[in-house]
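step: validate -> pass
step: tokenize input -> pass
step: predict -> running
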Amino acid sequence: MHAGLGEPSGIPTVPGVPASRTVVVVHDVGAPVPGPPGELIRGYRAVLAGSATVDLHLAELGLRGVERFAPVLDPVPITHVGADEPTAHHLAVAVEGPLVLACGSLDPAGRPELVVEAHHVLVTYSMPSVNLVLVGPAPDAAHSAALRHLVHQLELRGCWLAGPVGLPELAAFLARADAVVNVARWSAPLRTPLDPLVAGVPVVTRSGTSLAESSGDAAVVLPADAGPLLVAEAMDAVLTESDLRRRLVDAGRRRVEATDLTTAREQLASRILEL
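step: predict -> pass
step: emit ->
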């Protein structure tokens, strides 16, 4: 069972399968987990961390001794997923100019206000035609309302708070995106952190995220405390500097090609069978 701790729905279950026969692979820590973290995984046969960053986050939450198993990736590339047609059509006819896709929970842990403020800096002083789409879970209604108020207050007409999206919608956004940005302390709510690289989209992120770990030299990795000005500068660079974009996209392609997904899946299946 693949799961993300901190998701509003919690760890999914398989009808008729007891927890004692379930192996949980944690691919994302979407937000600080409320309550004792150990209660979320108590009774499961085993818990595997899908990356070194997730392993670190679980340790910070007090879940030590979790076995790390990376990479844990989906067998179907995001580019092979059928994009949602209404979303793709809207992006094609109604969205003009470059598009930045922001991935992160739309709550205080995801720091969406930092991305919105960076977008404001970008459109005010550098690139007025840039659009921003924010996708991710929105578990805090009050924070979502405050975020909408901020967008309205800053008069950001090119900012779209899409919220939670399905895989076809994510595929449509990635197909149209010119850059992906994630500044959350916790992981991005992508299906896998390699999705932007598979789609050939440059990445801007901050250190200490799964996106930074998986992207490597295919991303502009900012300091963990980077503010709106630095994030805006990085967004501007990946959108306008053709040599930088080419280097990032080429590095992403090499990183994806070097990832043996078949072997990784076989190793994961073998490990689960041993448990």
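step: describe -> The CA atoms of residues 80 and 171 lie 9 Å apart.
step: cleanup -> pass
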